[in-house]
Sequence to fold (437 residues):
Amino acid sequence: MNDSLRIGLAGLGTVGTGVLDELADHGGLIADRCGRTVKVTAVSARTRSKDRGGHDLTGFQWFDDPAEMAQSDGIDVLVELIGGDEGPARACVEAALKAGKHVVTANKALLARHGVALAKLAEGAGVALNYEAAVAGAIPVIKTLRENLAGNAVTRVFGILNGTCNFILTKMENEGRDFADVLKEAQDLGYAEADPTFDIGGFDTAHKLVILTSLAFGTEVSLEDIFIEGIEDITLADIRNASSMGYKFKLLGVANRTEDGIEQRVHPALVRAGSPIADVGDAFNAVVVEGDFSSTLFLEGRGAGGHPTASSVVADICDIARGSRVPVFGLPADKLKPFRRAAMRAHAGGYYVALDMLDRPGELAGVAKAFADEGVSIESVIQRGPAMSRSKVGADIAPFVLITHDTLESAMRAALDKIEAQGHVASRPRMVRIERL
Ligand code: HSE
Fold:
């Protein structure tokens, strides 16, 4: 145990150089805390000549192929920071596990797609597969679920798992700016993924949520069994309407156990202003875990960025240096239960509905009847002037916004289909779920 732990670092982007920074700044501290030194011995990246935040790479063995590095005798741990669910990232992680090397990765997409197979490989080889940095950057949510809550039955886990979306929604609300304008700023600040549709379409959140679901409920990771809606259709008018009714918009990832199975969903949601999750602003992330013995835990912090993400990568390396190894998803892989999906139509909750109603006698009565016929009860209503319309139409439109009491999603969809089919509205009704916290 006193020998140095030798790291092969695959990927030298923002997070990779963040790991080099942290090991350089805190090498002595880490050695004291782990009882041995941790040193990078090999690196691999797409281009060799690029500047890496001033780090001198000449002391490290260079590999063009990360999979070759993963099997080399010169490393004990592969740290995979390449990203992507296939290609070199998957190849080097699999090669490392097959060669009996520990793996630390920040790759949410890889785990979301191949988590169970990789867990089996790691268990078969008797090595660690650690991935704290894959979900919510610096927030220690993997350790919390995998270790600290090991004696709890978790009932719900949810959170704000994408900094880009939270930044966009916060700026729209606080500064009254349009979606496209704020997205551009998020890209300029480096929060967004290379393809921002991963962020705003909810896919990045989905990758992170399926990992949390598996840890929370002891089920196989299942990206096929998730409901995903992004934030791309949320308008400034929606945000102002919600605000005037005491709510804020957040893109949430939610996993909860119901009698019909597990709900695993990503969508914009209204949360009560003043609740802890509503106050999580800008590019911050937050995760809430409800355990039967622990009660509610609320974790908040930086979900992206070089140093916050490196902090979690280095913590995973320290666990390996100390000789700690826990089952990848908290249970031996063959004990993970098949995922049983609860249908979204069976979801019960409150809803925000925005309607661009035609401003003619009898339209409101038609809308009220459609809701009543489906057993949907209205909690509150506001009518706006044409300036708050969701569609760019003239003064013959009466924007109408309402909040429902808890109801079944199937009833909501049926009522809104009817309202549209009967021609009461000028555009498709907008329906957003309310998350009770
Ligand atoms: N694009 C991600 C975000 C980065 O905005 O949260 C971390 O996964």
Summary: The chain has a mean pLDDT of 94. Residues 162-164, 191-193, 199, 204, 303-304 surround L-homoserine (CB under 6 Å). Residues 5-134 form a domain with the Rossmann fold fold (CATH 3.40.50.720).
